[in-house]
Amino acid sequence: MAAGYGDSSQKIDYVFKVVLIGDSAVGKSQILARFARDEFSLDSKATIGMEFQTRTLSIQRKSVKAQIWDSAGQERVFTMKTSTSVTSAYYRGAVEAMLIYDITKRETFDYIPRWLQELRGQTDKNIVIILLGNKNDLEDERAVSTEDAKEIAEQEGLFFLETSALQSTNVEDAL
């Protein structure tokens, strides 16, 4: 798979939307920056509102533009107290969702079932959902075992990966 960072002159065969969801400070914006621009910032600020970035990929000789959407740092507030039309607009048309938790913060993992409930209530039943345990470069601070994550992924029919936006581990594979 070849990839282009910011090449807007080529013909696009397909466009697909990916949404990033999960608790505040799990690394959603860093995963977005790593994938879209191959960047990582140690002084990242919380996302305000919504943003998306794109990246063009070549998959089986087709030009595919991935739109990766990131939401505000207070997603629980965003999704549960914001109007349904705004929430629906965020999810509308998504073909993939990355459900992200921080392997060093158990509470971000414990909230996964509620995120799944919301996601499944807002998206097409055929959406691909990937459970991402981020920050696996902090192995000595791990609070969520890989086995626990694999178990919930299997129970819920999700794909599973552990990533490190800092080290760029498995970020490409998540898409």
TrEMBL record:
UniProt protein name: GTP-BINDING protein 3
Entry's family note: Belongs to the small GTPase superfamily. Rab family.
Subcellular location as annotated: Endomembrane system
Topology within the bilayer: Lipid-anchor
NCBIfam families (alphabetical): small_GTP
Domain of life of the native organism: Eukaryota
InterPro entries: P-loop_NTPase, Rab_GTPases_membrane_traffic, Small_GTP-bd, Small_GTPase
Organism: Heracleum sosnowskyi
Swiss-Prot/TrEMBL keywords: GTP-binding, Lipoprotein, Membrane, Nucleotide-binding, Prenylation
GO annotations of cellular component type: endomembrane system
Molecular-function GO terms, alphabetical: GTP binding; GTPase activity
Pfam families: Ras
